[in-house]
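Protocol step 4 of 6: structure prediction from sequence.
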Amino acid sequence: MTGLAAFVMRGRFQALLVTVLGAGSLVFCWISAAVLALVTLRKGAGEGAWLLFWALLPAGTLVYVYGDSGPLALLLSVMALALVLRSTVNLSLAVLACVPVGVVTGIVLVGFSGAYLEQIATYFGEFLAGLEEQLSQGGQQVALARPTSLQIAGMLGAGTAMSAVLCLLLARYWQAALYNPGGFGEEFRALYYPPVVTMALALGLIALASLGAEYRTWAVICALPLSFAGLALVHARAAWRGQGKGWLIGFYLVWLFFDPVKLLVVFAAIADSWFNFRQRWKRDAGTDIRRSDDEE
């Protein structure tokens, strides 16, 4: 993937080619979004806006022909996060910006894409009906709740926000690999939120979840920055203890398939905002070094 980043940064034509080709694909639009973020971070808002203009043509075509606004929403969301990161040089703030991005995406879908949401709800209903039939073959009737358009809008908003952060992180990784080797790891491991931010996110999550099942997908949007901060804490812990990539791969597999682990990561981020574990680990490491020097 770093080879692709190097190809893109050779010139305008290369960046335009990859961005436009990816933006016209439902499968590879994330590559376009990451390239857009990389160019914006490295060359500025003007170059990023120029690429975005041309990428909107194939993405807009997908909206017109198929009604799928996913690639368009992703491109705009990643551009917004990249602009935040370039202007503030603060990865934590850029990741936090995914909250308004996800909320706005969901609200726009509710306001302007009602037919698209109903279509997705119909697909979900057909799938769940088939699943109910299979589960009911044993004689016991099984009824599964159907998602509403509002739930689906929140789910798509959360998905867009998470995808935007992942594309931004990929672009930042590319930028560091090309121009500042090793810099991305240090920057990501330092991802942290102060108590006032974590409490605001936690209260927003609880408030939305308490409104009922329709708003629980919206609550996920508030959990995203906490999740990334918790994952950054896991990486920082692994680096402090000298654990390799194999351990992190195993952790991510467990995190991906077990929801309680996802909650633990969120709680770890909230606890870290109050106790700042990274600073404690640094102090402990410094104490260990001093002890070794004294023993010698």
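Step 5 (inspection) to follow. Residues 192-296 form one domain.
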